[in-house]
Design brief:
With 183 residues, the chain is an all-alpha fold. It contains seven helices and two strands, in the order H-H-H-H-E-H-H-E-H. A two-stranded parallel ribbon has the order 1-2.
């Protein structure tokens, strides 16, 4: 028999799951500050006439994001606590609130990737490039989780991370289009 739940239960589950990643933010802020300070120093020495504010802010946000992502996907789990490979497509969606929450969370987890990468690296302004690297990054995370047994290696994770990358890239494009309108 199928276990039914409400959208509200799903949202509460996601909100509850967000508590742990929020606790990683102080580490992310520290790494972000170090990345932005290092970037500022490099630009000060070799970046003649460039606007440093945007790059320094971007480095801070990237340091914050990638630190939280790494802690969330690798360091927060005990080695050997999760094993297995699941190459089924969309098998984690549709019957229970917990796996459905993980499904949505995997999408949310890569939205910042899709926003930050085109801001920081011009090559990522092409959707195909941004998506390809987002998927590659997701595959690397899944491989690390598999090898360290800190997470189930799932095709659905790569698919949902890719979806998050595309959503983030679209948000970046909407932002850029809005800026052109008001410039």
């Amino acid at each position: 028999m199928k276990n039914t739940y409400t959208l509200l239960q799903l949202l509460f589950r996601i909100a509850d799951d967000m508590r742990k990643p929020i606790s990683y933010i102080p580490h992310g802020v520290l790494i972000g500050l170090l990345a932005s300070a290092l970037g500022f120093l490099v630009m000060r020495l070799w970046g003649r006439g460039k606007d440093k504010t945007g790059i320094v802010c971007g480095l801070f946000l990237c340091g914050l994001y990638f630190t939280v992502l790494f802690e969330m996907t690798v360091l927060s789990r005990e080695p050997g606590s999760r094993t297995g490979i699941d190459m089924g497509f969309l098998e984690t969606w549709g019957q229970y609130a917990v796996p459905d929450a993980y499904f949505v969370e995997n999408i949310l987890m890569f939205i910042p990737f899709g926003v930050l990468m085109p801001i920081m690296i011009k090559t990522f302004r092409d959707l195909r490039c941004c998506l390809a690297v987002g998927m590659l990054f997701s595959i690397i995370i899944e491989t690390v989780q598999l090898l360290t047994q800190r997470g189930h290696c799932q095709l659905d994770d790569v698919v949902t991370n890719a979806a998050g990358t595309v959503i983030g890239w679209c948000m970046y494009r909407v932002y850029k289009a809005g800026r052109r309108t008001y410039d």
